């Protein structure tokens, strides 16, 4: 299973990404931020579909992406919240008939017993 996730930074900024191992990815964010980081929503499904939705986010929300100097990140400008991004992703999944579904809400690696 492949994952498309929304991530909420310590300062409240919302971001997105894809991963095969969601536990390790969450630990990576947490270790770099110095605190537990939450993935408000994790979608699971086909790799090609998760990558397609990530590409759509990058293309269609390009004016809303946060830049650090000239570096385009996978974070949105602070004026956009998780509800905005979740609604965008859910609508895109439906419109593109992607095989992705929500498999976790408010996930962090400390809740994962696997």
Strand percentage: 25-35%
Structural class: alpha+beta
Shape: globular
Instruction: Summarize the amount of helix as a percent range.
Output: 25-40%
The average pLDDT value, as a whole number, equals 96
Q: Features of this protein?
A:
36% helix, alpha+beta, 114 residues, 34% strand, four-stranded antiparallel sheet, two-stranded antiparallel ribbon
Concise synopsis of the structure shown:
With 114 residues, this protein is an alpha+beta fold.
Protein architecture, described:
This protein has one domain (2-111). Helix 2 (47-60) crosses helix 3. It is 36% helix and 34% strand. The chain is α+β, with helices and mostly antiparallel strands and 114 residues long. The strands form two sheets. A four-stranded antiparallel β-sheet has the order 2-1-3-6, with helices on both faces. The chain has helices at residues 22-33, 47-60, 82-96, and strands spanning 2-8, 14-19, 38-45, 65-68, 71-76, 100-107. It contains three helices and six strands. It is globular and about 35 Å long.
Question: How is the secondary structure organized here?
Answer:
Layout lengths: L1 E7 L5 E6 L2 H12 L4 E8 L1 H14 L4 E4 L2 E6 L5 H15 L3 E8 L7
Antiparallel strand pairs: 1-2, 1-3, 3-6, 4-5
Helix pairs in contact: 2-3
